[in-house]
Structures are given as structure tokens and as C-alpha cells.
């Protein structure tokens, strides 16, 4: 019998130890943003280091199906750019909206980043 694979919003259980590590070792820009996202400060619940399929999302709002990714210098290599494109494509097939910011943007313009996130939340809310 040939089972058809379906796309799922569940994370890969094998990623659990790595997710725990990432949660305990947030980068400085991730920590800055998390302090603004946590406890529904922007009106929605966000999860950090949330798994979907084989991927781990920096921040995810299940209610809006919104992923926020914070990219450092490692995301500037051609291999990582390719991997980010694959990740975004996979998530978009599941109906997840993906927005990306660079570390430097978060550190230098946190309030501008928050405004952009709120703007996107308003477009996505039903």
C-alpha cells in the first residue's frame, strides 16, 4: 500500500533536544525580540523555537500562522540562502507567512521591527 504523505504543522520529534538547546541559548537579537513578543504583548501568543516538519522556527504565532525568522551572518552563505528558500517554500505550502529580519535590524531598530510585525498581524487576522 502506497501511503500519501501529507504536510503537517507538527515538528519532528528528533529535533526536540536541539530545540531545547536553542531555547536555552537565544542570541542577543532573539532575546530582544522575544521580550517584546512574549506574554501576548502584541496581542497574540508566540512560541519560540517551534518545530514544523523538519524545521525549527525562531518565533511562531499559531493563531495567525506567522513565522518570524531572525537571520545572522551565517544566513549570508549561498548554502544557507538556499536552505532558507527551501524552508520558506515548505512553510508557505502549509499556509504559514514567513517574515525575516537580520540581527542588525533587530538590534538597531527594534521599535521599527515591532511596528512591521503589528502591521503584518493586522493583515493576517481574520
UniProtKB/TrEMBL annotation:
InterPro entries: DUF559, Endonuclease_DUF559_bact, Restrct_endonuc-II-like. This is DUF559 domain-containing protein. Residues 19-119 form the DUF559 domain.
